[in-house]
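FORM 7B: Structural annotation worksheet

SECTION A. Query
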Amino acid sequence: MSILLFSPFLKYGGAEKQFGKIRDILESSEVGFETISIDGAVIPKKSVFFEMLFRFFSVDVKSKKIIRFFKLPIYSFLFAIYAVKYKYKKVYAYSLYCLPALMFLRFFSFLSSNRVEIIYSERIYNGFVKYSLKYPIIYSLFDVVVVNSDELYLAFKNSKIKNLLLIRNYVVELEGSICCKKKDGVLRVALIARINREKNQLFILKELAEGDFNVSGCDVLVRLYGEVDDEKYYSELNVYMVDGHVEHYVSKPLSEIYRDNDLVCLPSKYEGTSNVILEAMVNKKDFLCSNILSNLQIPVCGANFFPLEKSGFISTLNSFIDDNEESIKEVRNENYAVCIKKYGYETYSKKILELFELNT
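SECTION B. Predicted structure
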């Protein structure tokens, strides 16, 4: 069987981490597959001609709109021609950036004798998806629609999307991560996410700035971990990035982040199934997150959620600081057990193999 995996980029965030694991699973199954990414990080080698075209029209999805407007449709057209010409049987893709290519592919597949099965993975319940589900014709182009959260599954099911499949994210334990709570009067808070409005880091900084980064007599040090998606939004954050209270790191190993911080925070406005929450749970790391529906549907023990309203985060943080270590330890252990059972790698791997009909 010949499988083609299609991605906007290979190294970016949680969705790319899950995508990378699919590649690992297929590789270990010794099945024939290739990967193409829109940003040009991975380009197929079957044809020098196609390789040159893919390289020339590859586009960074964070580049200027005029460049994306020109290059993305051409790249999408090339991708569809390539997939049909080389007779791939299955194409797996995710992200809005891949949709034009999949539409071209469905059209060319219909015209040719090569019937390509298109598997599309929807990973976040944002405004575009909500609007699309009112007129779900776009999803009828796909042979299988994969979602990664209960929230998305219910939304798609209510819109009568056929061939719907729920595959929850996987999560694995890290070696050497340390559970800790504030020491020396400083609470170190990690915000692990790309810096953009959806991830909503500004909400946390504004809340803490009102109290001069001091909560219940405890100084708070916020550490941002992630690439800047939105420069304008980052300039808004800079107003609140007070020396000694806010630091920014583009990238660090997750085990190091957990070792050096007391608490992980996730104030997102939108999420699919959050890798940040799952990784905190399986590594027994304390965390607080926004009370959006997709987060609430993860079976979390403890009062880990805060509303995205004034003083909502501060109130929840106060409770965390005042809580005793024994009760927090109990919550950590319960979350760990739930995460291993529901989001373990073995379950994920089995479902991916079933998706590609490789479970024989």
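SECTION C. Observations
The CA atoms of residues 15 and 83 lie 23 Å apart. The chain has a mean pLDDT of 87.

SECTION D. Sign-off
Analyst initials: ____
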